[in-house]
Amino acid sequence: MCIAIEYTNYTGLTINNENITGSCKGPILRIVNNPKLEFLSLSRKLVKNWKSEPNAIRVRGNRKLSESDLKRLKKTNNKSGYNWDLQEIGECAIPKPFLSFKQLEPTCVSFYGPLTVGPEAKAVPHKPSDVHEFNFTGCIQVENTKLKDVTFLLAFSKFKLVPFCPQYIRNNKNLCPKNLKYLNVIFTNIKIENNLGDPCSECIGGQVSEQYLSESAGCSFVYGDLIIANWKGWHNAILAIPCKIFFNITLKICHFL
Fold it and tell me: Where does the source fall among the domains of life (predicted)?
């Protein structure tokens, strides 16, 4: 038997079982993404019987769980034989489904769970300042949407994959597959398939000049180095570089007169 206590409105849990065993994938007991959960108590006999039981318990994404309960769990986990998956204080559940940054609790900087975007989504507005904003442990699941871009995912690029949580961006008819290369690096083992958007442009870097800026004007993504060379003083051309997503880039400035 394996037990999952997820997305409930419980404010407290007391588990008095002397032992719980199971053969499921992942932890025997999952206490995940319960936004009102404030206290958690496990029987001493259960804790003792779970010594050397691999991945016996997962406690993640419970925003209000008390500091004292988490410290007690972590004190046990630090002993030999224990290997529990435990959250940090204040870790929050990622909203499900994810539709907007307005859904996120303003005080949260770390999130847990599958980031699921489905048919409801037409666009996810975001600001440049959102990039690399949050710590995220989970997986990415974007399917059957009307999205034209998924650059909002960069807000969650401080990323750690949860085992057995499948990752994919698939069957999004308006999404250009060419512009998704950078996601393969950030989100481990993500499958990107059957996205049928119209061809859209990506460019490689190069030496910045008026010609380069003209030729790259329609590009949404730039890969490779940008080189600024042989300029006499500050050049207004640098101000003309449009707002893009730059990936795997080094800005090289040389022979600046």
Answer: Eukaryota
What residue has token string 């910045």?
208
Cα 103 to Cα 101: distance, rounded to the nearest angstrom:
5
For the stretch 130-143, pLDDT in tens is: 777 899 999 999 99
Q: Could you report the per-residue pLDDT of 159-208, keeping only the tens digit for each?
A: 999 988 999 999 988 887 665 777 888 888 899 888 865 556 556 667 77
User: How many other β-carbons are positioned within 10 Å of the β-carbon of residue 69?
Assistant: 20
- Tokens for 229, please give them: 């060379």
* Sole residue written with tokens 């991945």: 55
Whether 182 contacts 247, CB under 8 Å: yes
CA geometry: angle 41, 84, 98, nearest 5 deg: 90
Q: Span 207-224, mean pLDDT?
A: 68
* Torsion sign (Cα): 175, 166, 70, 15: positive
Q: Which residue has the tokens 């699941």?
A: 141
SS3 for 93? strand
- Strands (E) across 96-220 are located at 110-117, 135-143, 158-161, 168-170, 191-193, 202-207
Here the tokens at position 192 are 């990107």
Residues 125-158 as b or e (16 or more Cβ within 10 Å = b): ebeeeeeebbbbbbbbbbeebebbbbbbbbbbbe
pLDDT at residue 213 is higher than 80: no
Q: Are 90 and 60 in contact (CB under 8 A)?
A: no
